Amino acid sequence: AVAGADAYTIYRASVQADNLIATVDATTAATMQYDDVHDAAGNELKVEKSYSYRVVACGEEDEEDEENYCGCSDPSSVAVGSVSCRPGTPKNVSAALTGEGVVISWSMGTAVAETDKFEIYRSTSRTGTYVFLHRTGDAQTLGYTDGTGTSSHWYHVRALRTTLNIDEECKRSDPSTAVSPELPSGVPSTPSNVQATRGTHGGKIVISWNAVTSNPKPTRYEVFRSESQNGTYIMLGSTTGTTYEDTAVSEGEYYWYRVQACNENGCSAPSSASRGYAGTALTAAPSNVTASKGSYPDRIRVTWNAVNNATSYWVYRDGQDEDDVLQDYVVGTEYADIHDADVNPLVAGQSYTYYVRATGGGEACLGAFSSGATGHASCKPGQVVSLQVTKNGVEYKLTWDVEPSISPATSYRVFRKIGVGPDVFEHIATVTVKEYTDEDTADTPLGCYYVQARNACGDGVPSGEVCAD
User: Fold this and answer.
1) What would the pLDDT profile of 19-38 be if each residue is shown by its tens digit?
2) Under 8 Å between Cβ of 361 and 280
3) Secondary structure of 288-339 in HEC code, one letter for each residue
4) Which of 457, 338, 464 has the alpha carbon at shortest distance from 400?
5) Concatenated DSSP letters for 32-86?
């Protein structure tokens, strides 16, 4: 404050009339302070920009005492400031416990820097370590359901900027206020011993639980289902008893169930999840499993005998764990393990072991593993295909392609027919490209050829005989 000052004028950039942004009444202001607030419509501030400010102190003009009126002071020294580069901290964060899990909601924070997405973090205590849980796809999403959340969890939300090439400190807002869901008073206890049947019934899963007998007592139970243990739980229905039948199921598929007890005051926390499935698992394993040994240059062919009542088969490679599943739901009794350098690279000549299981429905109905069968792909090049022979005067122009292989061709051998009969051919050239012009045809006017690919491992399957039109 300046002694004798009745008002302060604040300028941005320079002390000119056009740059005057505010006048503060010194006689009513509690502190000598002014907030230059961003307003996209009338006072837009930018994140990347610095702003300079000067303040001028002025006395009130007195018409009866003009001699003692001193006017305004010189401008203050320049003060430079900028708005934060971080997005605004989410506001109004709340958490509510439902049958689907904990529902977290919030509203957009206030800041110049725009928010692109939100991140939700979870902890087991208010002051504990918060672990990343979920990131929204956009800034318009202002809620998230934690399917595994309970009344003992705490949450906070942070706004996120995804703009490229910004400093790490500018990417996230401060954490919001931490919140935890609270159960209403007078609700029942959580049901215990929730069980879902596993293969007991065809076409349905029966869920059962222990009745809540302590006060306050429930008037109904609500049953929820998810297709994964930590997924989103959807309410199926309610009952006053302690069993519930779910008939909207696919046999052999796993489902997870939770139950909560409810009365007029609300509902308990959801129970722990129980997994179940409908249908009966097959017991027989596929027999006579074979794997090709060098028969194909780009694949290994696996075959087996059919199992009664099987609807499909699962093929495993080099193990019997979940990570070893090569292909699920194979219809029929054979599968080709095809080389793909990007997603399924095979090594030529290397042995792989294959196992097969049959199912009458989904994963839950898988039967026993077959015996292992070992096979390998050939290291030779693929067969020459699409051979074309075109006559041009006394010359013959040959072009061709080659089927895929793990070990590519390094050269091609060209054979020309010199007599009558299927085996009367002579080797006339070896080339490294997929074309050849035969100019020496005066004594062999038949115009019939075949081509064979070659590499260090040997020769591939030759093309068929092709003659010029």
Assistant:
1) 888 888 877 766 788 888 87
2) no
3) CCEECECCCCCEEEEECCCCCCCCEEEEEECCCCHHHEEEEEECCCEEEEEC
4) 464
5) S------BTTTB---TT--EEEEEEEEPPP-TT-GGG---BPPPPPPEEE---SS
- Residue found under tokens 């529902």: 103
Look at residue 458 in the predicted model and tell me its pLDDT: 95
Residue 105 three-state SS = strand
Compute the chain's Rg from CA coordinates: 39
Q: What is the spatial distance between Cα 299 and Cα 404, in angstroms, rounded to a whole number?
A: 10
Q: How many percent of the chain have pLDDT more than 90?
A: 59
Tokens of 88: 């605004």
Residues in contact with 450: Cβ distance below 8 Å, sequence separation at least 6, in sequence order = 384, 387, 415, 425, 462, 463, 464, 465, 466
Q: What is the pLDDT of residue 32?
A: 80
Q: CA 102, CA 108: separation in Å to the nearest integer?
A: 20
Question: If pLDDT is split at 50, 70 and 90, which confidence band does 100 have?
Answer: confident
Q: For residue 204, give every residue at least 6 positions away whose Cβ sits within 8 Å of its Cβ, in sequence order, or none.
A: 245, 246, 247, 249, 278
Nearest-10 Cα torsion for 45, 47, 49, 52: 60
Q: Are 382 and 410 in contact (CB under 8 A)?
A: no
Q: What is the pTM of this model?
A: 0.52
> 225-246 pLDDT, tens per residue?
999 888 889 999 999 999 999 9
Residues 6+ apart with CB under 8 A from 183: 97, 151, 266, 268, 269
Strands 411-417 and 448-455: antiparallel
Distance between CA atoms of 42 and 361, rounded to whole angstroms? 65
pLDDT at 337 over 60: yes
Q: Average pLDDT, whole number, for the chain?
A: 90
pLDDT > 70 fraction of the chain, expressed in percent and rounded: 96
Length of the chain in terms of residues written: 469
Neighbours of 44 (CB within 10 A): 9
